Amino acid sequence: MTAGEVRSSPPLPGDPRFPAQPTLEEVGRARLWLFRHGVRTTLPTRLIALRAGSRSTTPSLVLVSLAAFVGAWATASIDDPPFAHAAGALVLAVAFAVWTLVRRQAARYRDQLAAQFVEPGGRPSPSTAAGLVGAWSFVSFGITFIGGAALYGTLVVISPPMRSAAAVSLVVLGVGLVPAGLALLDAFTAPVIAEDEASAAVDRFLRSQDVRRFVLPAAFAWLAGINAPVAWQPLQLGYLALAIGTQLAGWLHGNRRRLPPGWYGLP
User: By percentage, how much of the chain surpasses pLDDT 90?
Assistant: First the structure.
């Protein structure tokens, strides 16, 4: 199917009985996503609906906060606070990492369906992919994982009483590095899925946003610091402020962008 054929006969909202068609829910989410980026359309193209509509609009930070509250409540009654905090942080980190990986895989599945309707695309150049990821995301990843490893690795070496707790914090960061690494890998290696300039612009936007959508480094920075010793709290707060601040800056920068003019669907 060519781009001209798609334009002359825009896709209808898909029938859920057919996996290669966008569902009504995906069409609605795609319309909302397009509106947030400056495009008004009543019916997005099939390609855009499959791709943009497969990305959940649920605020990840709300779910993280809810999970953290539940985890803190569940461990509050355990008699051994250090163990409780370390165990709770690790369980929450694993649960959150699995959740982000499941979301990523669901979006990748819909991307693969969308790719059936276009010619196979190549990968973006490394410089293009790096520009789409953005400096703020790289800084956020570096502060969270490299800075956190340095912080808790130092604590392991110089504070034997806190060695076990700091080791758990390193494991928490290691767990978070899995979805973070896969999200970065996708940004650099996933093929372009596009049939025209409009869908190519959507591909660039999704490639940029998926790095922040499918992993929240600041959440793992916070979970790693749950069991930090009192003496290290000022340094820990500085680390968290940098991790959260850089990720928030990247999120604000990425979400202010607008899509270029193009044919995204029926007006």
Answer: 36
Which residues touch 108 (CB under 8 Å, ≥6 apart)? 186
Angle (CA) 213-245-56 rounded to 5° is: 15
Token pair recorded at residue 16:
């859920």
Residue 137 near residue 212, CB atoms below 8 Å: yes
DSSP 98-154: HHHHHHHHHHHHHHHHHHTTSPPP-PPPHHHHHHHH-HHHHHHHIIIIIIHHHHHHH
pLDDT digits (tens, 9 = 90+) for 216-261: 888 898 888 876 666 677 888 888 899 989 988 888 887 778 999 9
Rounded to an integer, what distance in angstroms lies between the CA atom of residue 28 and that of residue 105? 21
What single letter denotes the amino acid at residue 59?
Answer: P
How many angstroms separate the CA atoms of 244 and 223, rounded?
Answer: 12
Domain ranges of the chain: 58-108+124-266
In sequence order, the 6+-apart residues with CB closer than 8 A to the CB of 101 are 178, 179, 182, 214
Question: How far is it, in rounded angstroms, from Cα 236 to Cα 224?
Answer: 10
pTM for this entry:
0.80
